[in-house]
Amino acid sequence: MSERLGIAGSGAIATGLAATASVLGDVVLVARSDASADRARATIEKLCGRVEGADASRVTVTTDSALLADRTFVVEAIAEELDAKKELLAKLAGIIAPDAVLGSTTSSLSVATLAQAAGVADRFVGLHVFNPVTMMKLVELAYADAATSETRGRAFALCEALGKTPVDVPDTPGFVVNRLLFPYLFSAAAFLEESGMEPKDVDTCMKLGAGHPMGPLALLDFVGLDVSIAIGETIGADIPANVRALAAEGHLGKKSGKGFYDYAR
After folding, report:
1. Edge-to-edge, what's the strand order for the sheet holding 124-129?
2. Alpha-carbon distances of 142 from 18, 68, 81, 166, rounded to whole Å
3. Residue 178 CB burial class (10 angstroms; 0-12, 13-18, ≥19)
């Protein structure tokens, strides 16, 4: 990997990207707090144990964002919250080198808006990787109009170096996958309410009848119901009452131990 990768964030996408990139070289990951950094180190250690050639010792986990100054490609990978992303990207733009590419792993937000907030639209990219990052091959690449051909080429090359399949997509809410996927997922949740079926039975029908690797309700749980609602609102999808009710009760899916399924059992 010719790029020196830096990552701002410590969640599933950030740690997955760090573990994946460790196959090719050193990575710097900046966490928000000491506790977040400790969790990120443990997660990266675990993920690297599952990926051939990955090496957790190549990932520097820190809370000091100044260590991103020597990185050539820096990716923001925090929660899907517009104001938080805009604030962090503006901060990162003031730290990174003048020729470094700045990216965001946003899954649904306007790349043009994020690029404008960062103030570096010519070298900004929406780099939508999919969870689990160590396994999923697709990366959706979206740009503001001002992005240079060099920026586009470097983003494409980085994805290929990471063993991913990059696809240029339009800067529209949800890009391609989420724009098409989430109306389907929410329709499954609405159908669950209407039919009175069990989540497992709905998922079994879609797995065996449509050849899907995961049923729609299990996938909502995997993504997180809070994240799913945020994506749904961004793309203008109808969000069923049962999804909102579960989220309001703190049942966010797999990460909280309960959603449409009970993971504590």
Report:
1. 59-62, 27-30, 5-8, 73-76, 101-104, 124-129, 138-142, 165-168
2. 21, 23, 18, 10
3. buried
What are the catalytic residues? Answer: 107, 128, 140, 178
| CA dist., res. 178 & res. 258, Å (int) | 23
What single-letter amino acid sits at 86? K
Task: Provide the H-helix boundaries in the chain.
Answer: 12-21, 34-48, 82-93, 111-118, 149-161, 177-195, 199-210, 216-223, 225-235, 241-248
What is the amino acid identity at position 118? A
Q: What is the CA radius of gyration of the chain?
A: 19
Number of other CB atoms surrounding residue 168 within 10 Å = 11
List the beta bridge partners of residue 102.
74, 124
Q: What is the pLDDT of residues 87-108, one digit of tens each?
A: 999 999 999 999 999 999 999 9
Asked if 235 and 109 count as a contact pair (C-beta separation under 8 A), the reply is: no
How far apart (Å, rounded) are the C-alpha atoms in residues 263 and 253? Answer: 8
Phi, psi of 221 (to 5 degrees): -60, -40
Under DSSP, the state recorded for 126 is E
Q: Which of 213, 214, 241, 210 is nearest to 225 (CA)?
A: 241
- 51 burial (CB, 10 Å; 0-12 / 13-18 / 19+) is middle
Tens digit of pLDDT for each residue in 48-86?
999 999 999 999 999 999 999 999 999 999 999 999 999
Per the listing, tokens 């299990």 go with 218
